[in-house]
Specification:
The complex is a heterodimer of chains A (635) and B (369).
Chain A (H helix, E strand, L loop, with lengths): L2 H20 L15 E6 L14 H10 L4 E2 L3 E3 L5 E2 L8 E2 L13 E3 L5 E6 L14 H14 L7 H8 L4 H9 L9 H12 L3 E4 L2 E6 L6 H5 L11 H6 L37 E7 L3 E6 L12 E6 L3 H9 L5 E2 L15 E7 L3 E8 L28 H10 L2 H8 L4 E2 L24 H10 L4 H5 L1 E8 L3 H17 L3 E8 L1 H9 L5 E7 L6 H8 L11 H19 L4 H17 L3 E2 L3 E2 L1 E6 L2 E2 L1 E3 L14 E2 L4
Parallel strand pairs in A: 1-12, 1-13, 17-18, 17-19
Antiparallel strand pairs in A: 2-5, 3-4, 3-24, 6-7, 7-9, 8-9, 10-11, 11-12, 14-22, 15-19, 15-20, 16-21, 23-25
Helix pairs in contact in A: 5-6, 10-12, 16-17, 17-18
Chain B lengths: L12 H4 L5 H31 L4 H4 L15 H7 L6 H13 L5 E2 L4 E2 H36 L4 H15 L2 H12 L14 H8 L10 H7 L3 H38 L2 H8 L4 H28 L4 H6 L5 H11 L2 H29 L7
Helix pairs in contact in B: 2-16, 6-7, 6-11, 6-13, 7-11, 8-11, 9-11, 10-11, 11-13, 12-13, 13-16
The chains are: A alpha+beta (635), B mainly alpha (369).
């Protein structure tokens, strides 16, 4: 053998030897805490922006929640490594945060006005400073809300503040109404100033040491919209924002700061990558798409946070993320349900299950009066090798599909047993507005068969049908749900054929806008924990989903649902609202407007040395808020 | 070429040594090749833009609306007017061409920042990976090929080829994860994923550390910071191994067969007959000529490393071009995809040029007149 080949052999053998030595060995139990002063979370999902008035995604919301604060907060429970779970979280009661008191009718801080409007007064907490040292004043609060309202970027969250405070969903509609024109571009600058002066400015005013909100009419979820976890209501320092080049706060300049980047270029907002809040953490560094690093605010107005630094790292690849977590370098890890088995039972890792969630994600939607022209999802557009436009207009067909779904199998196999059946659209955990006594559809192919035989005067059964279900890719459960429909419906009659296709968002959007999808599967996460935030997209005639579910649905909504939806918002009385939302749920059930698929429970996967992780179903992520968290062992 | 030489005055004396030299010919050749570049790019742009027009206005709207929640209070038709999605095709192309010429590539939804900024961020990452892999790939491939050819048909040849084929067949994500599990997930954490550890990351982002190239290894050296350098190297070893290992087979085969052929040539027999040591025969006479086809392949290979390697980047959590490209494709991020097409066009033209020049350097008979 030549010397080179001898060398290669030796190299190869030593490699094999080292390899086999290394393959043994994992973490020990009760491992020593790594990096006790640093909390490291590994997850996937990129933040869009750091501007509270711009953000509408959970990753940005999480960052903002740790650095900025709101007037109120929800009480939260804790879930931690020792499986201690404290109740005490709520989504309908509040604690004061930057406000000194929670307004209520009893303490006179919520008052009705003569014209049917409502006033909310918030005394502002004293002695709070922003990270740059400036004091928190009522002017800062007024400015923060006005800024969110005038920014109103396309596809953004400002509507949630505009709606209750002005009665309009967008500032452009206010201008159009004031100017009496159809196009925003036709309004003069005087109109725009007038719009600001009559609607925006008076909506939020300072009054001594308090801030006063004037609502034109009752809006029951108003306090929810302001609560910590809702990034769009975060309180900023007016001076600092102006220093960064932001809106000076005057009526004649707001248009220049409206809709930065047209809603698609987040960078155009001056607060895109800088932060200055009152919260327990300061932003140290943001590397978009990679990581965000926070350091503790030692001048926090409450007791400072327990960890000195807090990092959120984005690692998309599950295998790599898992290694970092198993290794102890990461403390909290985002684990998709299907991989839970790979971390559960590992030494030093705790898995918290059965946490309540507030979402309807996914749900299956029927389109009544689906467009058949140029639509390959409906086949020929008539019975047999296609479906007619009014296929889902018959309630019997919709009910049949509800009976065809296999709810238990879905929970077992897709949700790993960590799911629950539910009616809709009000989520099950939104008490007291969810009717636990309303019956659920069950998997019953006999009933389904009977209904399909009767539907459409027997024509459906005789001639059979074919159509395609579309699901939005990026989510395994949606695909499986589609396949479940396919398998079960086809079992009933050999003339029934369903195809399943996954498409990317752009195609999906196209089909949705075109009202071309006979059955589509997609989901909705809560903006704020009030039933109104769910009944609107699912049942209003102009709802995010219902508005695209065809003529038949829109008519139905106008006649039967819209009045009830309005009724639900006309009073703050919980009992009265409960009755209304119970009625809506019953209608949704009896008319089988959609299929309410089983929902996933929340899980939390932690290293066993992570303690006091706060929990509230409304937190942007299942672990979002790092303030109370510390690392160590309780003894 | 038909030019009338008499009327041109005599060039100064140093140019006499330039004119007609190989260097002059090569320079002229290079210039011609580079001048072709804009036309190649325009061609690419037309094709890509053309393909995008197969999409409806609604589909193109998805660049601006990324979830159902954003449909609320949005008048779709107004939005389409605002973004000019309904304009005729030549208007849109003109507008887009204007953007490209001014280096405005639009917003990258997959990176959540402008495409230009994202490119400047991810490009150095891929360069660093390519740099640290290029040498192992080329040297490793050439060495293995030489060893195999020299030990033609005996055990060493077979082992070497087997080694390389295993590498070729082993999916890189399997190799990557296995290596991570061994060197990071087990008792040791020698070679972690990512580009830098937390401490080194702090140093690099501090005010004292000067960023020259955005490549952590190079910048660490330029800043005389040994700690950051070793940390960066520790993070790059595994990805470089995975990237190299998978590619050795190809280069090995080409080198091996090329060298075998060269070794059979007459001049090699002559060199041996002259009594030269085998070592010298191979290294000085045979190898340089055997390298010619290898260079052609290796050059393109390495150039396209810069494109980024999705799987390696994903497994080792390196945020480079490859990963970005795949995310953009999945999310239908048209601005990013356009930028990529352009980048690839430039890369291909330049890479081919460089390879041809190296080729000419290696083989004096080659000239580009």
């Amino acid at each position: 053998m030549s010397s080179t080949s001898k060398k290669s052999l030796i190299f190869g053998l030593s490699f094999v030897l080292i390899f086999s030595l290394m393959i043994v060995g994992f973490a020990q139990d009760k491992p020593e805490v790594k990096n006790p002063n640093l909390l490291n979370v590994v997850t996937s999902g990129t933040a869009n922006t750091l501007d509270p008035a711009y953000t509408y995604d959970t990753a940005s919301g999480t960052i903002i929640q740790n650095v900025y604060e709101n007037l109120l907060r929800y009480p939260y429970g804790t879930v931690d490594g020792n499986e201690k779970k404290t109740e005490g979280y709520s989504v309908s009661s509040f604690e004061p945060l930057l406000a000194a008191k929670v307004p209520s009718k009893d303490n006179g801080l919520i008052r009705e006005t003569a014209g049917g409007g409502v006033i909310y007064e918030f005394p502002i907490r004293q002695g709070v400073t922003f990270h740059n040292g400036n004091k928190l004043t009522p002017e800062d609060v007024e400015y923060s809300f006005e800024r969110t309202m005038i920014q109103d970027r396309s596809g953004g969250p400002s509507w949630m503040i505009l709606q209750p405070l002005t009665g309009y969903g967008s500032i452009k509609s206010i201008v159009k109404a004031v100017a009496g024109v159809d196009e925003f571009a036709d309004a003069t600058s005087e109109d725009r100033v007038a719009a600001f002066n009559s609607f925006i400015d008076p909506a939020v005013e300072t009054k001594g040491n308090s801030v006063v909100f004037k609502l034109p009419k009752s809006y029951p979820p108003f306090l929810n919209i302001l609560t910590h976890g809702s990034a769009w209501s975060a309180i900023m320092d007016k001076e600092w924002v102006i220093e960064q080049g932001g809106w000076p706060g005057t009526a004649d300049t707001w248009v220049e700061y409206h809709n930065p980047g047209g809603g698609s270029a987040a960078e155009d907002s001056v607060l895109y990558d800088v932060m200055n809040g009152t919260g327990p953490f300061k932003l140290e560094r943001w590397d978009p798409g990679t990581e965000v690093v926070f350091s503790r605010n030692d001048n926090y107005w409450r007791e400072p946070a327990k960890v000195k630094r807090f990092i959120i790292q984005k690692i998309d690849e599950w295998g790599t993320r898992r290694l970092k977590f198993i290794n102890g370098e990461a403390d909290i890890c985002y684990v998709p349900l299907q991989y839970l088995g790979q971390v559960e039972g590992t030494e030093g890792v705790k898995v918290q299950k059965h946490l309540p969630t507030i979402q309807m994600n996914p749900a299956a939607f029927f389109t009544q009066d689906v467009i058949v022209e140029n639509n390959d999802l409906v086949g020929s557009g008539t019975w047999g090798d296609g479906i007619p436009s009014n296929f889902f207009n018959d309630v019997k067909v919709r009910k049949a599909f509800n009976y065809a779904f296999e709810y238990d199998a879905f929970i077992e196999q897709v949700l790993q047993g960590l799911g629950y059946k539910t009616n809709g659209p009000v989520p099950k955990n939104m008490q007291p507005y969810y009717n636990d006594d309303l019956e659920l559809y069950s998997h019953d192919l006999d009933k389904a068969e009977q209904l399909l035989k009767e539907a459409h005067g027997g024509e459906l059964w005789e001639k059979g049908f074919t159509f395609t279900i579309l699901y939005n890719t990026g989510n395994e459960s949606r695909k499986t749900a589609s396949n479940i429909f396919e398998a079960n419906i086809e079992k009933i009659n050999p003339n029934f054929e369903i195809k399943v296709r996954g498409v990317d968002w752009s195609t999906y959007l196209d089909q949705m806008i075109g009202t071309k999808m006979p059955l589509f599967i997609i989901g909705w996460l809560a903006d704020f924990p009030d039933p109104h935030n769910f009944v609107t997209p699912f049942m209003a005639s102009d709802g995010t989903f219902s508005g695209w579910q065809g003529e038949g649905m829109v008519e139905m909504a106008k006649e039967q649902f819209d009045p009830l939806i309005e009724q639900g918002m006309a009073t703050v009385d919980v009992e009265k609202r409960k009755k209304t939302y119970y009625e809506l749920q019953k209608l949704a059930h009896d008319l089988a407007i959609d299929v309410w698929l089983p929902q996933a429970e929340g899980t939390r996967i932690l290293r066993s040395w992570v303690q006091d992780v706060p929990f509230n179903p409304m937190f942007a992520n299942s672990w979002s808020y790092a303030y109370p968290i510390w690392k160590g062992y309780e003894d | 070429m038909g030019w009338v030489r008499e009327s041109i005055p005599d060039p100064p004396f140093y140019l006499i040594f330039w004119e007609g030299t190989r260097a002059e010919i090569m320079l002229a050749y290079t210039t011609r090749r580079v001048l072709v570049l804009p036309f190649v790019l325009l061609g690419i742009l037309l094709i890509i833009f053309g393909m995008l027009q197969l999409l409806s206005a609604n589909q193109r709207l998805s660049t601006f609306i990324s979830s159902p929640a954003e449909l609320k209070n949005t008048d779709i038709e107004v939005l389409k007017e605002e973004y000019g999605l309904n304009d005729p095709i030549w208007v849109r192309f003109g507008r887009w061409l204007d953007d490209v010429v001014h280096l405005r590539f639009g917003w990258s939804e997959s990176a959540k920042m402008t495409a230009k900024r994202a490119f400047l961020r991810f490009f150095p990452v891929s360069i660093e990976l390519a740099l640290w892999s290029a040498l192992p790939i080329i040297l490793g491939g050439i060495w293995l090929g030489t060893v195999a050819a020299v030990n033609h048909n005996n055990v060493v040849d077979h082992i070497t080829r087997l080694f390389a084929i295993v590498g070729w067949s082993l999916p890189s994500f399997v190799a990557g994860l296995l290596l991570l599990m061994v060197f990071y997930g087990g008792i040791v954490t020698w070679f972690p994923p990512g580009r830098l550890g937390l401490e080194a990351s702090e140093i690099v982002h501090s005010a004292q550390f000067v960023r020259y190239t955005q490549l952590n290894t190079i910048d660490a050296l330029l800043n005389w910071n040994w700690f950051v350098f070793t940390d960066a190297v520790r993070h790059i070893i595994l990805p470089a191994i995975v990237m190299s290992y998978v590619r050795w087979a190809m280069l090995l085969r080409i080198m091996r067969s090329s060298l075998l052929e060269t070794l059979r040539k007459d001049y090699v027999q002559t060199a041996r007959a002259k009594g030269l040591k085998e070592n010298v025969v191979i290294k000085k006479h045979a190898r340089r000529n055997a390298l010619i086809p290898v260079v052609t392949v290796a050059g393109i290979y390495v150039a396209f490393l810069i494109n980024g390697l999705v799987i390696t980047e994903t497994i080792f959590d390196w945020h480079g071009l490859g990963r970005w490209a795949v995310t953009a494709a999945q999310q239908f991020d048209t601005s990013t995809l356009m930028l990529f097409a352009l980048f690839n066009g430039v890369l291909l033209v330049l890479a081919n040029l460089v390879v041809d020049l190296i080729y000419a350097y290696l083989d004096p008979r080659v000239t580009y007149d």
